[in-house]
Write a structure and sequence with these properties.
heterodimer, A: 12 strands, globular, B: about 325 residues, 14 helices
Chain lengths: ~250, ~325
């Protein structure tokens, strides 16, 4: 049975069947309001589905505590901003929250994991900077470092490339896909999704309409139907999938 | 850790200093004789009256100021994190007023009675004002100036109810005593109320400190906090209830004292950063020191007349309040 979620009497996602294999990078695409964020929140255990189940391994996560979920799944919101004045390293250390007990502070193991996460996101030099002094892109990278510090089995990201310049977009996607980490990432940029994801999942009005490789999912006919655009799908000079937009339909 | 030890030394020094300030000619030697006498040591006791002034009135009063300052500072720091609002504190959110109403109802109408009855009444009042605040805010979240405005309105309502109860059913003397208490004064502090307040405050502070990491996580909103493994709903309930308990015990003992919860956490955050694992203990220390000295000032500024300490905290707090509002761009 597919996954469904309704809010305020309105069905947001309906009958979605999605299976992510360990180590896979799955790109979640679809127009605004297609249900990408809602689906991610259900899968991250932040919203209880109104029908269907979310399974991690063989277990239904419905009865799991937030802490137990956070030890396996990391979630990066699209905009998790704050007027806090915490330092970057403190924010990344929040990723260790599900592994710490209340009495104990951040210990040496935690610190080593935080350092590694900072290093991977190129944030080591910014570690003592206050949150308020960071640019949007730096904040996003700090959140992703925090997610990595959770050492999750899978990481779920909602539009992580939104605030990043091209270089950091490419770096981030390479980082996410270059490991054996399981990644489910919602993306707006179809070319970026096609270039880096093992598999694309296309949502339309809360339903899953296509699931497969970039070539299978991104077709002119489907882009016309789902995005209401007139586009040609081909290859760019480097042989990567490319989309040429003619205009809206 | 060394910094915290230094803070503790400052607190002990402040308490000793606070005891020496005020009417009666008391020096460190006299203080030593009083303490020694009551701890069963063989020292030359002070004259009875002076001994009683120091032991029965001054010492519990100064210690009460320390306990109350610590509790209010922590409440402010926690409320600021839970509501994601830099201006939240028990007084401005109307919680202190709710506690006052509950306490006055018990005292004036004679429901319950005794120190525990007054505290219980204050707790019911505090929780009532909290519930009203949350109901008025609805599901639209806890952030922004709306929280503050709603809190002030709730506070005004409960203040009106307090005075209504007071005027309708008590005599002139009680009214005067209670009005004085409503402004916040350490003068009525005695050993029995001090012990109750100190025990509740210590337990409350420990519980809140254990939620330090959750408080840090809440700064990024509900979803990110939940994704960090924090049970947001349960955490909020625990934090708000403990805050309400602390506020009501304080109000039942010494009345509603404004702005300590605003002044102290902002100062400590400015110096040591916002991580709650350090912010909370240092706010407690700084709040204790701050209120001990403010209370000493209230005793001597217009001696022999005494000013309610809440008047002085408001004099310091209002400019800071305006400063924070301006920095947020709300003014």
């Amino acid at each position: 049975m597919g996954l469904a979620w309704a809010a305020g009497g309105r069905t947001i996602i309906t009958g979605v069947d999605l299976d992510v294999a360990p180590g896979e990078t799955v790109g979640l695409i679809g127009p605004n309001g297609s249900g990408k964020s809602s689906l991610l929140r259900c899968l991250a255990g932040l919203r209880a589905p109104s029908a269907g189940t979310v399974r991690h391994g063989d277990e239904d996560i419905a009865g799991w505590s937030a802490r137990r979920i956070a030890r396996r799944l990391a979630f990066v919101e699209q905009t998790a901003d704050s007027d806090t004045d915490l330092r970057v390293a403190d924010v990344v250390a929040l990723g260790r929250t599900p592994f710490r007990d209340r009495w104990r502070g951040v210990d040496r193991t935690d610190r080593a994991i935080v350092d590694a996460a900072l290093d991977r996101l190129d944030l080591t030099e910014l570690r003592h900077r206050r949150w308020a002094t960071l640019s949007g892109g730096e904040r996003q990278r700090a959140h992703i470092a925090r997610a990595l510090a959770q050492r999750p089995h899978a990481i779920l990201l909602d539009e992580p490339t939104n605030h990043l310049d091209v270089r950091h977009q490419l770096e981030l996607m390479a980082l996410l896909t270059g490991t054996d980490q399981t990644v489910l990432v919602a993306l707006h940029d179809l070319a970026l999704a096609a270039r880096f994801c093992d598999r694309l999942v296309l949502l339309h009005r809360g339903a899953l309409v296509a699931d497969g490789t970039a070539d299978e999912v991104l077709t002119s006919a489907r882009l016309r139907e789902v995005y209401e655009i007139d586009a040609e799908v081909g290859r760019d000079a480097l042989g990567h999938p490319a989309i040429a937009y003619r205009g809206v339909t | 850790m060394p910094l915290f030890a230094a803070g503790l030394v400052a607190l002990v020094g402040s308490v000793a200093g606070g005891v020496l300030v005020g009417s009666g000619d008391i020096g460190l030697a006299e203080l030593g004789r009083v303490l020694g006498g009551h701890l069963g040591l063989h020292v030359d006791p002070l004259p009875r009256l002076l001994d009683s002034l120091v032991w029965d009135l001054r010492i519990p009063r100064v210690l009460m100021a320390a306990v109350v300052g610590a509790a209010l500072a922590i409440c402010g720091a926690v409320l600021q994190a839970v509501t994601r609002n830099a201006l939240a504190e028990p007084y401005l959110l109307g919680i202190s007023h709710g506690a006052s109403t509950g306490a006055v109802v018990v005292v004036v109408l004679g429901v319950g009675g005794g120190a525990l009855g007054v505290s219980g009444g204050a707790l019911v009042g505090a929780l009532g004002s909290f519930a009203l605040l949350l109901a008025l805010l609805g599901s639209r979240g806890l952030s922004s100036v709306r929280v503050l405005l709603t809190g002030i309105v709730v506070g005004l309502l409960f203040e009106a109810v307090t005075y209504l109860v007071l005027m309708a059913s008590s005599d002139a003397d009680t009214t005067r005593a209670i009005t004085y208490w409503l402004l916040g004064s350490m003068a009525p502090s005695r050993w029995d109320t001090l012990v109750v307040t100190a025990v509740v405050a210590a337990v409350g502070l420990l519980v809140l400190w254990l939620y330090s990491t959750a408080l840090d996580g809440l700064a990024f909103g509900t979803d990110t906090a939940a994704a960090l493994g924090i049970n947001v709903r349960a955490t909020r309930i625990v934090l708000l209830v403990v805050t309400a308990v602390l506020t009501s015990v304080v109000v039942a003992s010494v009345g509603a004292i404004a702005f300590v919860g605003l002044i102290v956490p902002h100062g400590v955050r400015f110096l040591l950063g916002p991580a709650h694992r350090t912010l909370l203990p240092f706010s407690a220390l700084a709040g204790a020191v701050f209120l001990v000295w403010t209370d000493a000032l209230a005793r001597v500024a217009f001696a022999p007349r005494e000013v309610p300490v809440g008047v002085f905290t408001a004099l310091v707090g209002v400019p800071l309040f305006l400063l924070v509002l301006r920095r947020r761009g709300d003014l």
